[in-house]
Design goal:
globular, 22 helices
């Protein structure tokens, strides 16, 4: 681990995954219900002349049950049918995880492979429809850059969406990585995963907007007038478009089946992180996986009941927003741990605490000052923020320079090149070297960015999201969506607070999480044992050769003396 006091960051990441999969499972429950109800004569998606708004209204009022909500949107009832579908979903998730990693891998071939095939089926079909070209033009031919300045929160939510899409900061990739062979090429795998994910999303966009263009053509309106975001797309636009085709009911069922496969694949992957952490804990190595998966699934199912209320979508929307804070916070501490905390004690021992902490506070303090000016000033905020950043940064660098120069006087072996490298890069380059010994090639730019770019950007994005305002000018944090404080905002804030507390507990009392670290240290020691044995043998051989040389040299010495 980077540091014993950073164990809480790892625990926080899997806690975030667990909170997310609880509400994500209800999405699958709604998709499952929509699939089965598509066989009913009351399903609206294949009715002639139905609009996307009407289809969405059916989803909201009937499937989620929001028709009984009052003006404050607080829950008034629990929908038993949605509880049943949630139970079905959790049984499926449990079955995907309970019988070992090989079984999960075989399921993933289907749950991920089949949707890829279906994506191209939907893409080809959508692109052959009337109006598809206008939809595709709206996708890649029209750019509205004003949203990047008018809604600054989109920068932060976009990054957290990528984190979700790649399963970053959930512990999922860490869990799956722990099951890979020790020498698996991590850099190559990460590039393949990142490019594959982006390519899948990019291609899916053509299928979506081609369908949107066809719906706009049917309704005789511009593409921009068609609602194609969020639930309106999944349960409105797409089902209505495919429902209007010959054999439309089958296209709609195929669409919901495809969405279920994609969702169940993500759900059991996300849950794999917390499950692996529990089973890797000291004393849990022999605990049956099917029992652990059942425990996690039952508890998550019970928590998911709040999303089976008629206010389930409001709960989901609120918690999903606040999870963005957890993702960015966890991502910051993970990258900060890799770039700044790794080998911190050795760095302090070499350069002294004054130099190390002055440079650290200079780097991140200047960013905090800049964010305060960027987001606090009404006029000239951009220039004021950059001015504040450069003033604080270079003032801090000046103090760091004085301390380094004093260190060089005390220890003349230092040069400006070596001491700057020691302060700015050595610890993270040591991490890169340690990783490269196990997983192969790691580019130097990764180490440089981990130290000097990525944690800085994540800190800015976290502060940006925290200070963003809604349409009424109120902070999004605590007023998201205009929902009432209790229960929606309170539960969302508690999720962020819970993740933060897990990190703080680890920082204050690292021994609390030590049982999760013991198996790692044992595995590391076992992996290093053969190398140490070889080194020991080489040392013994050198000693034997040295003693043999001494024995051979002794007569010659004696003869020379004579």
């Amino acid at each position: 681990t980077f540091h014993a006091r950073f164990r809480g960051v790892g625990v926080s990441s899997v806690a975030c995954a667990y909170m997310l999969v609880v509400y994500y499972s209800m999405l699958l429950a709604w998709v499952s219900r929509a699939f089965f109800e598509s066989w009913s004569s009351e399903a609206p998606w294949t009715e002639e002349g139905i609009t996307g708004e009407e289809a969405v209204g059916y989803f909201m009022d009937t499937i989620i049950g929001m028709s009984t909500l009052g003006p404050d949107l607080r829950p008034t009832r629990v929908l038993g049918v949605n509880v049943g579908y949630s139970a079905l979903v959790w049984i499926c998730i449990w079955a995907c995880l309970a019988f070992g990693l090989k079984w999960t891998g075989r399921i993933a071939y289907i749950s991920m492979g089949l949707p890829i095939i279906l994506l191209f089926v939907f893409l080809i079909k959508a692109c052959t429809l009337e109006g598809a070209s206008e939809g595709i033009n709206a996708y890649i031919g029209q750019w509205d850059m004003s949203v990047l300045t008018e809604r600054p929160d989109v920068w932060s939510t976009a990054v957290s969406q990528i984190f979700f899409s790649l399963s970053v900061t959930f512990g999922t990739m860490t869990a799956y990585g722990s099951h890979c062979p020790r020498g698996e090429p991590a850099f190559v795998n990460s590039v393949v995963i990142g490019l594959s994910n982006s390519m899948f999303s990019f291609i899916a966009g053509f299928a979506v907007f081609a369908a949107v263009g066809h719906l706009a053509w049917q309704q005789g309106v511009p593409v921009d007038d068609v609602t194609y975001g969020g639930f309106a797309l999944v349960f409105g636009t797409w089902p209505v478009v495919f429902g209007s085709l010959p054999g439309g009911e089958h296209w709609v069922r195929l669409l919901f089946f495809d969405l279920f496969l994609l969702g169940i694949d993500s759900a059991f992957s996300i849950l794999e992180g917390p499950l692996t952490v529990l089973l890797d804990r000291a004393g849990m190595e022999t605990f049956p996986k099917w029992k652990a998966a059942a425990l996690f699934s039952i508890v998550a199912f019970l928590f998911s009941i709040i999303y089976a209320t008629d206010a389930g979508l409001i709960f989901l929307d609120t918690i999903d927003f606040y999870i963005n804070f957890v993702l960015l916070l966890t991502g910051f501490f993970e990258t900060f741990g890799a770039g700044w905390i790794y080998h911190l004690e050795e760095q302090i021992k070499t350069l002294g605490p004054e130099v190390v902490f002055t440079y650290m506070f200079t780097t991140f303090g200047s960013i905090i000052v800049a964010c305060g000016l960027w987001f606090g000033l009404d006029n000239n905020a951009v220039w004021g923020g950059f001015l504040g950043f450069f003033v604080c940064y270079f003032a801090g660098l000046g103090v760091t320079y004085i301390l380094l120069k004093k260190k060089m006087v005390q220890e003349p072996q230092w040069t400006w090149k070596t001491i700057t490298y020691e302060l700015c890069l050595k610890n993270v380059m040591d991490l890169r070297a340690e990783l490269s010994d196990v997983v192969g090639y790691m580019p130097w730019i990764w180490a440089f960015m981990m130290k000097n770019l990525i944690p800085h950007i994540l800190l800015i994005l976290f502060i940006n999201l925290a200070q963003s305002d809604n349409a009424e000018g109120e902070p999004l944090f605590g007023h998201y969506g205009g929902y009432v404080t209790w229960p929606f905002q309170v539960l969302g804030i508690l999720c962020v607070a819970f993740a933060g507390c897990l990190i703080l507990v680890g920082a204050a009392m690292p021994a609390v999480y030590e049982p999760y670290d013991i198996p790692y240290r044992k595995a590391l020691a076992a992996a290093q044992a053969p190398q140490k044995e070889v080194e020991g043998m080489e040392t013994d051989e050198k000693k034997d050769l040295s003693s043999e040389g001494e024995e051979v040299a002794s007569p010659e010495s004696t003869e020379a003396e004579a």
